[in-house]
Amino acid sequence: MRRIPLSALFGLVMTGAFLFCAVFAQWIAPYPLDAVTGKVWESPSAEFWLGTDTIGRDILSRMIYGGQITIFVALASSLLSFGMGAFFGFLAAVRGGWIDQVLSRLVDVLMAVPSLIVALVVLSVLPISLTVLILVMGVLDATRVFRLSRAVAMDIAVMDYVEAAKLRGEKQTWIIFREILPNALSPLVAEFGLRFIFAVLFISTLSFLGLGIQPPLADWGGMVKENKDGLIYGKAAALMPALAIAVLAISVNLVADWVLSRTTSLKGGRGA
């Protein structure tokens, strides 16, 4: 086995730590989510490791619970976007013709408008809930996955084993799931990490603008919004969730880069 680079190992450890805290938030958080346990904007201490927020709630506890919500929404929307985008991308590559043209032009229309603007317009009309957020983010991000999946599937669809499957009379769904998908997993797995981080940043942005996670739930973007006024008084309460977003983004990107480089090297070795 090849040694895992130090950067990838750091990414794996930090990503695993974030996921562990998200899964077991109810057991490891020192205080309940909305419990007022101290004074306003207390400095870090033995009782409050990261201090308190704008109304005296423990920042560490809210970051743990906020990470659970942030990661859950980002992961669910990423899975939805990859399920939709990969299926329709593979379908467009296999079928071609008018189906490919219709799907591609529809994706072009959706991508012509910035995703944040579309999300703000939709969420200002619909009632905001976790389900709505996941659906909106998943559909918007599926356009990027469609582009990648279609490009990868177009290269695979001309391979001999795919042509042989068509000559055998295999159905298109069989070709997509048995021939194209296994050979397209490597770039899709690497891309999944990048799209997941995009989803984390996206939901944090929506929450900061007031159209993301709503109280009494908490997420990192909402925590930055709640505590941003403390920066005027030299309080670092808003910087803690912002730092968590940055560390998670860097960690997942390091893992995704390692997966992509490993995939490229393996393909190069086989080609040689």
What features would you highlight for this structure?
272 residues; mainly alpha; MetI-like fold; 10 helices; 0% strand; elongated
Assign the CATH superfamily: MetI-like
**Unreliable runs:** none
Strand content: under 5%
CATH architecture: Orthogonal Bundle
* Total number of beta strands: 0
In CATH, what is the class? Answer: Mainly Alpha
Q: Over the alpha carbons, how many angstroms does the gyration radius reach?
A: 22 Å
Shape: elongated
The string of secondary-structure elements, in order, is HHHHHHHHHH
* Assembly state (oligomeric): single chain
- Give the integer mean of the pLDDT values: 85
What separation lies between the terminal Cα atoms? 19 Å
Helix and strand composition category: mainly alpha
User: What's the main sheet like?
Assistant: none
In total, the number of domains comes to 1
Could you outline the blueprint of secondary structure elements for this entry?
Elements: H1 6-23, H2 25-28, H3 59-95, H4 97-112, H5 115-125, H6 130-157, H7 160-167, H8 172-208, H9 220-227, H10 239-271
Helix pairs in contact: 1-3, 1-10, 3-4, 3-6, 3-8, 4-6, 5-6, 6-8, 7-8, 8-9, 8-10, 9-10
